[in-house]
Amino acid sequence: MKVLDLKCQLGHSFEGWFGSEQDFLSQCVASQVCCPICNDSHIVKQLSAPRLLLSSRRAQIDSHGNNNDHVYIDSTKPFDPAEALAEIVTLFVSNSTDVGDKFAVEARKIFYGESTERAIRGTATRQEARALSDEGIDIIMIPTPIRNKVSIH
Prior knowledge:
Shape: globular
Oligomer: single chain
Largest sheet: 4 strands, antiparallel
Distance between the termini: 30 Å
Number of domains: 2
Radius of gyration: 16 Å
């Protein structure tokens, strides 16, 4: 697995996992790589130190340092990016508060110090997400198909 640091035209930086450099290039040509913040498909690679995720290596994801929960890749079976993403989403869901369609309002309250800092999740329109980004509020958009496949109960 090749981990790349990516950036969209609006300057949002994010990480992408690909089987190879060729996989990344072919997905870009097909507009399959999109910014998770603004959904822009004009993506460029940023300079970064090379990182590889190998199935024999443990991938450790810490929930913003707030707890010691970890997600590990089982080295006894082939790596499945969709399954790994589902595990990460499940970990996030179990360590965040659902604020529903009040996401933009709550995100602003947290950003401006009007509410306790915490991990939240919810829904926002593209316009709300763009407005949050314009205000300097970092958010991560999780596509609905992934969210629907993950049991949050």
